[in-house]
Amino acid sequence: MALEDARREVDLAFTRPDRRGLAFENAFGGATSFLRRRYTKDLAGVDLAVTGVPFDQAVTHRTGTRFGPRAIREASALQPYDPPYGWGYSPLDELEIVDYGDVAFDYAKVADFPETLTAHIRTILAAGAGTLTLGGDHYISFPILRAYAEKFAPISLLHFDAHSDTWPDDDFTRIDHGTMFYKAIKSGIVDPATSVQIGIRTHNDDFLGVNVIDAREVHETGPAAVAAKARKIVGDRPVYLTFDIDCLDPAFAPGTGTPVWGGLASWQAAAILRDLAGITLVGGDVVEVSPAYDTTGATAIAGAHVAQEIADLPLRLDPAAGLSHRQASPVAGFFVGQIPRGSGGSAPGLSPLTAAAGGVKPSPMLPLDKLDQITRRFGFVEARLSAGAEPSEIAALGREHAELKPVVAEIAAYRQALADLAEAEAMLADPEMKALAEDEIPTLRARIPEMEGRLRIALLPKDAADARPAILEIRPGTGGEEAALFAADLLRMYQKHAEAQGWRFELLDLAETELGGVKEAVARIEGEGVFARLKFESGVHRVQRVPETEAGGRIHTSAATVAVLPEAEEVEIDIPAADIRIDTMRASGAGGQHVNTTDSAVRITHLPTGIVVTSSEKSQHQNRANAMAVLRARLYDLERSRADDARAADRKAQVGSGDRSERIRTYNFPQGRMTDHRINLTLYALPQIMAGDLAEVIDALVAHDQAARLAEMEG
């Protein structure tokens, strides 16, 4: 909007014709809308409704926080014109954000306030928008959570604060800002096991099972580690994010009413919030900004930036999945049911991509706006690499560039195919070109669904561990010596497969029987996509054959267990020295070169879990490093399992006890047959498979997994 157009408007906070983008206006003039968005009660097509709750119940709570919503709005006025984005896109262009105004309540009837606020939030959610609430006393989170509980209970809570606010109070009618999360947990609204409190720096005897990352841990481990830990705890559950401004140190936010030093710096809070990309955010609030304590306005500025970070969070690319959360999310929530329709005047329901292709509408299951986001992200990564990224960034950006490049090429080909089809269909009206068009159209119509299928697979959320090296563990199950011999065959099979793929195969521990069987084998496999390819090998493998020890020629059935774990890094799994016991010993084996003459073998026992790992190579120092790597992998896998009950149940069903009846795969030597029972795949190529040719088996398992996840996302 030009200056002359702006002069004819009353105030763009009330008359803005487009809810996206920026327009010419005086940054500090007029109404104090959040980010200079339009004030409106019309929520049709809105992604995010910002609303204020000017509540502090006089002197019994944070005095002056009733003025917080106005102060945050005023402080946000300049942010759209000086955007701290750096992500290759403007959130204000991507989202329809409106200022819904403040909740109206009777100050003389404080007891009615909680239900009034719950009804207010319920109205916004029912219209299909998400909420970003500006407070107000922190008590407001409880009535808001009650509205969200009607859709998502139990919900996971990401709580930034100096205090835990879980002090006991069983009077649920009492309005108090130190007990609201106690009430939310006790009433089943919040799931403490998948909730996280960040920045806590005051004492509480009972956190009710909520995971706590206190301020000291933030300072010692850094924002990236804190965000990664929080993402792992909440998993893919619906998350409500509440940010009490006194999470920040008073030096950065003096208007908090909490004069306790040691809090987070503003850069730490910003880094954590940005690194939370990928969580399933369903709503958020910023509370306890009190202008009465801060005449400089610094606290309100901090609150405004925190609020914008929360608003922008669902747009950011998940570093693990390569997708923004809004499309990858399994639940509707923040931007409930809304997929922004793109800027540039596209017709409702059509992305800019579809409009550019002449109105040809591809599969409705393909999230078209994601294609634009991925293309923009690729351009941003490429520009960062060309401009000379920081050394600490180069490796991560290089990996991301390599992952995105084939996807972006497929997107470009898909766009071209849509445009070609639109052009060919238009040529049907030209008698001279009709014959040529009729030849091209069937080919294009056949190609486009194939391309959409490949793109849907590319857009599937990725397991964050897929790119990691793998720890392979093989043990004999039922069947005695024959089971140990079969375990040795499996070890050779995986070693040959790794060599064929160009992966590095490192044997960390091997205990053998007198006949050359395997009692236990642990190996580390490193290479591109190792865990992504091998993770489906976990389970019980059954063999049917005549053992070498069988004189009568009878077929025996034996079993061996295979576990494939993603390798964990030291920064992810902290193992205190007090939690482990390290024993050294001489290696045992089949004799000769298998026996060490020094105490070089190492056994490490993790006391809290009882996990025992060993390594028996020649170097005691290397054995200790190997054993710690295996222990970290097992503890990392244990944490992954605890964070996802469904995955834990699946793993138990796969690995089980090693009994022959709990099988995922059967190797029948007399028939030369391998059958994978999970996908009903039978191949009569057993000699080749045992020689390491597993590509056809693994490809089938990967395809089956992709099909199942596509069906889950689309159905």
Describe the structure.
- The chain is α/β, with parallel strands linked by helices.
- Helix content is 39%, strand content 16%.
- The chain is built from 22 helices and 19 strands.
- The strands form 3 sheets. Strands 2-1-3-8-7-4-5-6 form an 8-stranded parallel β-sheet, sandwiched between helices.
- Helix 10 links the parallel strand 7 and strand 8.
- Helix 5 crosses helix 6, helix 14 packs across helix 15 (391-427) and helix 15 packs antiparallel against helix 16.
- The longest helix is centred in the middle third of the chain and has 37 residues, at 391-427.
- Residues 317-362, 589-597 and 645-661 have low confidence and may be disordered.
Write the layout of secondary structure elements.
Layout: H1 3-8, H2 12-15, E1 48-53, H3 68-75, H4 91-94, E2 97-102, H5 113-126, E3 130-135, H6 141-152, E4 156-160, H7 180-186, E5 196-198, E6 211-213, H8 215-221, H9 223-234, E7 238-244, H10 266-275, E8 280-287, H11 298-312, H12 325-328, H13 352-356, H14 368-387, H15 391-427, H16 434-458, E9 470-476, H17 480-501, E10 504-512, E11 518-526, H18 530-534, E12 539-545, E13 556-566, E14 580-585, E15 601-606, E16 611-615, H19 620-643, H20 645-655, E17 665-668, E18 673-676, E19 681-683, H21 686-690, H22 695-714
Parallel strand pairs: 1-2, 1-3, 3-8, 4-5, 4-7, 5-6, 7-8, 12-17
Antiparallel strand pairs: 9-11, 9-13, 10-11, 12-13, 14-15, 15-16, 17-18, 18-19
Helix pairs in contact: 3-11, 5-6, 6-7, 8-9, 9-10, 10-11, 14-15, 15-16, 19-20
